[in-house]
Amino acid sequence: MNYWNNKSILVTGGAGFLGKYLVKKIKKLGGKDIFIPRKKEWDLRKEKMVEKLFKSNNFDLVIHAAAVVGGIGINKKNPGRFFYDNSIMGLLCMEQSRIHNVKKFVAIGTICAYPKFTSIPFKEEDLWTGYPEETNAPYGLAKKMLLVQSQAYRKQYDFNSIYLLPVNLYGPGDNFNPNSSHVIPALIKKCIDAKEATKDKIIIWGDGSASREFLYVEDAADGILKATEKYNKPNPINLGSGHEITIKELIQIIIDETGYSGKVFWDKTKPNGQPRRCLDITKAINEFGFKAKTDLKIGIKKTIDWYIKNK
After folding, report:
1. Residue 245 pLDDT greater than 80, yes or no
2. 265: burial class by Cβ within 10 Å (0-12, 13-18, 19+)?
3. CB-based contacts of 173: which residues, under 8 Å, 6+ apart?
4. Does the annotation mark 139 as catalytic?
5. Which of 4, 34, 105, 191 is deepest in the core (most CB within 10 A)?
6. Span between the terminal Cα atoms of the chain, in Å
7. d(C-alpha 302, C-alpha 296), whole Å
8. For residues 205 and 74, what is the distance between their CA atoms, to the nearest angstrom?
9. CA dihedral 168, 173, 174, 178 (to 10 degrees)
């Protein structure tokens, strides 16, 4: 029997970067009754609105992908807003899901929930061994509270909620706004803008030594939907590619793919963020058979092509 048939599905953040891929794939899998709340009509930070949303619908499944997100710069400028907005959305959506007997709640967490100095590769058991990296700790902790809520609700109410930890996402349709974008779209925009304006240098935050792991957004959507179908346990699960790369190595790939020929200057007065990021992806493979398919260079090329076409 098709898992997605005859289910009423709420995808919060369904009009966002990741959400669009989730909705598209759910439709391909046979899901037809999908509700995507738009902020103008359904502000998920407002309790009365969230109550009305759940009273007005009989959801079987909730995938909570809504988030207020961004790169290091916007996190530093908005720690209070990032903490409050992300906390309250999660709290309200899961509570109303419980009250209205939603059969399953899928909470999308963040790599930023991990401690700043976590042993490589990050194992799910390491989540509580220290404090997150300071520039995005409020965001990371807000999303981490979804795990606490999820496990508490399962224990007290037998509520079926799972918690997933995707690493940094990228791909076509990403946010390229320089005020709020993450590292891959930010670097792509810098290189393409500099090339078009024939500038001979670009300036990048930090010293390039920090490492990251990236997951192509379409792969992330596959992993989330596989977990939705097959995973029903309280323990958090990492979603990643298992491939670590430094920012210096990353910018070289982007330079090669964009054809930018100028120089790179590192602004060492700006923060690197978390020193290293690389996930242990064993549990995702073992629990629901997820393994990323998209090679980083291919994914970056697709993202660059999309940006050039749509910018």
Report:
1. yes
2. exposed
3. 17, 20, 21, 217, 306
4. yes
5. 105
6. 42
7. 10
8. 13
9. 170
Question: Residue 16 phi/psi, 5° resolution?
Answer: -90, -170
Query: How many CB atoms within 10 Å of residue 296?
Result: 20
Q: For the sheet containing 161-166, what is the strand order?
A: 33-35, 8-12, 61-64, 104-108, 161-166, 237-239
**Residue 261, phi then psi, degrees to nearest 5:** -115, 5
Q: What values do phi and psi take at 265, rounded to 5?
A: -115, 135
Which residue in the block uniquely carries the two structure tokens 């997150």? 132
pLDDT per residue as tens digits for the range 112-142 = 999 999 999 999 999 999 999 999 999 999 9
Q: Indicate which residue of 3, 114, 131, 139 is catalytic.
A: 139
Per-residue confidence (pLDDT) for residue 71, from 0 to 100: 82
Domains of the chain: 8-170+215-240+278-292 (3.40.50.720)
DSSP 60-111: SEEEE-------HHHHHH-HHHHHHHHHHHHHHHHHHHHHTT-SEEEEE--G
> Residues 49, 52, 58, 63: what is their CA dihedral angle, to the nearest 10 degrees?
10
CA atoms within 13 A on the CB side of 233: 11
Look up tokens 């590192």; give the residue: 266
Angle between helices 183-196 and 296-310 (to 10 degrees): 50
Residue 161, pLDDT score: 98
pLDDT attached to residue 70: 84
Paired tokens of 85: 């907005």
pLDDT score at 114: 97
Task: Name the residue with tokens 């759940």.
Answer: 54
Q: What is the mean pLDDT of the chain?
A: 96
Position 1 scores a pLDDT of 67
Contacts of 159 (CB under 8 A, 6+ apart): 97, 98, 105, 150, 153
